[in-house]
TrEMBL record:
It is found in: Membrane. Its main location: membrane. Keywords: Ion channel, Ion transport, Membrane, Transmembrane, Transmembrane helix, Transport. This is Protein FAM26F isoform X1. It is a multi-pass membrane protein. It comes from Odobenus rosmarus divergens. The gene is FAM26F. GO terms for molecular function: monoatomic cation channel activity. The chain crosses the membrane at residues 49-70, 178-197. InterPro entries: CALHM (IPR029569). The lineage of its organism: Eukaryota, Metazoa, Chordata, Craniata, Vertebrata. It holds the Pfam family Ca_hom_mod. GO terms for cellular component: plasma membrane.
Length: 317
């Protein structure tokens, strides 16, 4: 039991890192499965290039779009935006939403970049696509046998009779692996720079950031519990009144505007330190303040976790 609790605590503390690690492993495994079981280069001058590019790029595009779909911030940004956009749209709000979209794109790019990197390290997709490219074939076969260019598309299937065409596969695989390692290095450097800058520009300290995450976990747990209890009582009352043909008791339920306000994307203001939109709503409601953006409200990349805990996961939406 203690070992299970230790594993659970580890998951709760590092669920984001573990999630990205799991996505990376599944993507890499999926690419290996595709390249060994599904992928079969047609060895045709007409089809090699599109076939190789489709296997290299289309799954990456699908994973990129899936990354958007599985991110709760995507649905926080989109849900109801058409209904409220015409009334509350502003230049500052548009800039904040553009920044959030950039952050969503960066998070969604993890899986597709992993796919492309692993595919390039394997080399099969690149070899097939490169042998079907006429300009690349002319460059590779320069100063070689006259039949090299015509035989090159057959090389991935080991059917090329020209020895030079078969030997060029090693060069193409080397190119593919070099590109793969360059891509991996660029992604790691970019992540390091982005993480360092976002942490450096964090408006709160390291320990307060930890407290913030603890608060959000507790807030979402209590919100889910209270919402379940309230929904159950409301449903019971409505069903009871339906069968008894009676008038229901009055239940105080948040209005559409209330739900919209606590469901909007979080913005940080150093003058008014709130840990969530619910926290901001409760305090401003007591002061009869509006929830509209005020001067100084900004989207902070390091605080992106505020929009994605507990009840806000897409699995429960």
């Amino acid at each position: 039991m203690d070992k299970f609790r230790t594993v659970l605590d580890l998951h709760l503390k590092h669920h984001s890192t573990l999630g990205y690690g799991l996505v990376t492993l599944l993507t890499a495994g999926g690419e290996r499965l595709f390249s060994t079981v599904v992928f079969q280069c047609p060895c045709s001058a007409t089809w090699n290039l599109p076939y190789g590019l489709v296997f290299l790029l289309v799954p990456a595009l699908a994973l990129f779009l899936l990354g958007y779909m599985l991110n709760a911030r995507t649905w926080r940004l989109l849900t109801g935006c058409c209904a409220r956009g015409g009334r509350t749209g502003s230049c500052s709000a548009g800039l904040r939403e553009a920044l959030v979209c950039a952050q969503l794109s960066a998070a969604a790019a993890v899986a597709p970049l992993t796919w492309v990197s692993v595919a390039l390290l394997g080399g099969a997709f690149y070899e097939c696509a490169a042998t079907g490219s006429s300009p690349l074939a002319r460059r590779l076969c320069r100063d070689r046998e006259p039949t090299c260019e015509a035989q090159l598309p057959l090389a991935p299937c080991h059917q090329a009779q020209a020895p030079d065409a078969q030997d060029l596969l090693k060069e193409l695989k080397a190119q593919s692996q070099v590109l793969g390692w360059i891509l991996i290095a660029v992604v790691i450097i970019f992540l390091l720079i982005f993480t360092s800058i976002s942490r450096c520009l964090s408006p709160v300290s390291f320990l307060q950031l930890k407290f913030w995450k603890i608060y959000l976990e507790q807030e979402q747990q209590i919100l889910k519990s209270q919402a379940t209890e309230h929904a159950m009582e409301l449903a019971k009352e409505n069903i009871k009144c339906f069968f008894e043909c009676a008038h229901p008791k009055e239940y105080n339920t948040p209005t559409i505007k209330d739900w919209q306000q606590i469901s909007s994307l979080y913005t940080f203001n150093p003058k008014e330190q709130y840990y969530s939109m619910l926290h901001k709503y409760v305090n401003r409601k007591e002061k009869s303040h509006s929830m509209r953006s005020t001067e100084g409200d900004t989207v902070i990349p390091v605080l992106g976790f505020v929009d994605t805990p507990g009840m806000n996961t897409t699995a429960e939406l």
